[in-house]
Write a structure and sequence with these properties.
heterodimer, A: about 375 residues, mainly alpha, 4 strands, about 65% helix, B: about 300 residues, 2 domains, 10 helices
């Protein structure tokens, strides 16, 4: 068994494609999505504005938008207005905030004149404009509260009465119970780690089919090797490969993007179960498929379909109810859920046992299929 | 001499197609036995059965004195199988490949290291031990392919067409290696469809066609029993040989003409007199030994290479 595994490791070290599929490509995906989402909640999205008023009130308003939304406000001149609006129509700009000349005067007016701001926006850029409109709405409420406060102060009634009147009918008591950190990195680093674990199946299929077609398996059967040693040696070799793959990818997320892994023992247990699962399925497919192309097609279906359904690309709660139910039938769902439980919710090994059991069960099922079909695989491997 | 291989009435079918009808032959210990036949005759199937890769439907097979059905695993300890295809990991070096195969045969540690050194010397590739196999010529790969079957010092080596598509240098190297093995008392079962290889290497042979043995015995015995004698005549270019009354039509062979006959001395004398009478310039005139090619032709009605 060990000599099969050692031979396999020597071969894998000489195959650049393995490094590409198992390490370089997932790292590229993590870097790509990590760069986009690593600062989630601290977006520095640029918002163009034109301040026609140029008063202290308008400048304070712009500052308030910047502070509240975390935007980088970029001022444009009045002369650029038509050009900017045209760019929005053409889809080249997403939003333009225009503060009219009467803004400061209206804000400070006691006559009840209502100030206004204009938002020009690309109707297709809801993701940018929507949050900006919400920020503006909040600011408008704030200004209204200040105005009401001034009006109440003018009545001369007690401060407690004023506070009672100003108090909202209800308040939101936001208490996140379990999230240590939750952002794009906590989604994508484990997500792409889980997804690319299943790509090891391609390497396994290649070797099994290659050994079968080259006559290597037939030749090995003429030696004193027990056939099961071949199966076990190959499993051991690729199990180690996946363990290293997961360690590299999670370490990359930790050191480069500051991903907090949580309970390392729980992560180790999960990675081991995931490696068993990926390689167990790999053994089954490598024994079952008739050609390399067929194997690659099945692997793509398993890896990509499982990734989409299992919530590896986006949070599972964004999916429709029916899809969320179906996702429970993919090993990727259980692996990602367990990673989220450990990393985001601070759970430990004892808390993720359902995921560990599911992954181990899939691994055993894969191994059982491989064992059952191994004899007929050997019979067809006559060289 | 004890037999290394005894096969009686061996039969094997694959999905309704008969691969072996009735194979019987005996290989004496320490000899080189040639298995000759065209592609699809049943040579590889016979060798795979002997190497424990295939089960068979009927017959008795004993290898090194043991029934292959009962002692298959024990036999493997003393048997080296060289498959027809080159089954090596091309990205690895001979050293890595031989380490892998040696361990598969149960040879380990210092003993394996020593054996690898010995077999690399034997195949003449000790200086290329660490180069990737992919950088080797076809002949060099074939030599390593053989070396991988020698690591556990087998008593019997089964070689399935080990010289297909190789250069003359490698072929000679392999021939020398087989002669050395024979001298050391190792039995070699050698399958080929090159007659000259059997003539050069083998003490005994069996000719297989359509899953049956059609001739078996010592090389000379088979040639005498099934081959016809002939006289060879080579004249100056463009000259045709004289026809001899009472003899058949001579057939073109190489640069000359071959006349098969049961009375070679009469034919020799007839051609000598006829050429002298007509002043034909004779380059060669001789009685030739029957060849396996003619034996095969006589037995099957087809030329071995054509079939």
């Amino acid at each position: 068994m060990w000599n099969v595994a050692i031979k396999e490791w020597k071969l894998l070290l000489k195959e650049k494609g393995v490094f590409f599929w198992l390490l370089a490509l997932p790292i590229a995906f993590i870097v790509l999505f990590g760069s986009v989402f690593s600062g989630s909640g601290q977006s520095s999205l640029k918002i163009s504005y034109i301040d026609l008023d140029q008063t202290a009130a308008s400048r304070a308003f712009i500052q308030a938008v910047e502070d509240a939304g975390g935007y980088k406000m970029v001022e444009a001149g009045e002369a650029d207005m038509e050009d900017k609006i045209q760019q929005i129509r053409d889809g080249k700009e997403t939003v333009l905030l225009v503060i009219p000349r009467t803004f400061g005067q209206a804000i400070e007016s006691a006559q009840g004149n209502q100030a206004s701001v204009t938002v020009y926006r690309d109707a297709a850029a809801e993701a940018t404009a929507g949050p900006l409109l919400a920020v503006l709405e909040n600011l408008a409420n704030g200004y209204r509260d200040n105005k009401m406060k001034s009006a109440l102060q003018a009545t001369g009634r007690s401060e407690s009465w004023q506070e009672q009147v100003m108090a909202a009918p209800f308040r939101i008591d936001d208490r996140p119970e379990n999230a240590l950190t939750n952002n794009g990195i906590t989604q994508y680093v484990p997500g792409y780690t889980v997804m690319f674990v299943f790509f090891v199946i391609i390497s396994m299929i290649r070797r099994f089919i290659g050994d079968k077609e080259s006559g290597m398996i037939a030749r090995l059967r003429s030696t004193t090797m027990k056939p099961i040693s071949y199966l076990a040696g190959m499993w051991l070799a690729y199990l180690a490969v996946v363990l290293i793959q997961c360690a590299v990818l999670l370490s990359f997320g930790h050191w480069v993007y500051g991903l907090r892994l949580g309970d390392v023992a729980a992560v180790a247990a999960l990675v081991f179960a995931l490696a068993l699962c990926g390689t167990g399925l790999g053994l089954a497919l490598a024994i079952l498929v008739r050609s390399e192309n067929q194997g690659i097609a099945f692997t793509q279906l398993l890896a990509m379909g499982g990734a989409a359904l299992g919530g590896l690309w986006f949070p599972i709660d964004l999916m429709p109810e029916a899809m969320r139910t179906i996702s429970h039938f993919t090993p990727q769902f259980w692996a990602q859920k367990a990673f989220q439980d450990i990393i985001v919710r601070g759970m430990h090994t004892a808390d993720i046992w359902p995921s560990l059991i599911v992954l181990a069960a899939v691994a055993l099922a894969g191994l059982a299929v491989a064992m059952l079909r191994f004899k007929s695989f050997l019979k067809t491997a006559l060289g | 001499m004890k037999p290394a291989i005894e096969i009686h009435g061996l039969g094997k079918s694959y999905g309704g197609k008969t691969a072996l009808r009735d194979i019987s032959f005996t290989v004496p210990e320490g000899s080189c036995f040639g298995l000759l036949g065209p592609n699809g005759a049943g040579k590889s199937t016979t060798m795979k059965i002997l190497s424990g890769l295939l089960e068979f439907d009927r017959g008795d097979v004993k290898v090194l004195g043991k029934d292959i059905r009962r002692f298959g695993e024990r036999i493997k300890e003393k048997l080296g199988y060289v498959p027809q295809s080159i089954t090596l990991y091309e990205k690895l070096s001979p050293l890595d490949n031989l380490t892998f195969f040696g361990e598969m045969y149960g040879v380990r540690g210092g003993e394996l290291k020593k054996r690898i050194g010995e077999v690399l010397e034997r195949v003449g590739l000790a200086d290329r031990a660490k180069d990737p196999i992919a950088s080797f010529s076809g002949g060099m790969k074939r030599r390593i392919n053989i070396a991988a079957a020698l690591l556990h010092k087998p008593k019997l080596i089964v070689m399935d067409e080990p010289t297909v598509g190789i250069d003359p240098q490698s072929r000679n190297h392999i021939f020398e290696m087989i002669r050395d093995l024979k001298r050391e008392g190792v039995t070699v079962l050698y399958s080929t469809h090159y007659m000259e290889e059997v003539e050069a290497l083998c003490d005994r042979l069996a000719i297989i066609d359509h899953g049956s043995v059609i001739a078996e015995g010592e090389l000379n015995e088979v040639l005498d029993r099934f081959g016809s004698q002939a006289v060879y005549l080579e004249l100056a270019e463009g000259e045709r040989p004289p026809l001899l009354p009472g003899f058949g039509e001579p057939a073109a062979q190489g640069r000359g003409w071959l006349l098969e006959t049961k009375a070679p001395l009469d034919a020799l004398a007839g051609w000598a007199n006829a050429c002298k009478a007509r002043s034909l310039p004779v380059k060669r005139l001789e009685v030739v030994r029957p060849s396996l090619e003619t034996v095969f032709l006589a037995l099957t009605g087809t030329s071995l290479r054509d079939s």
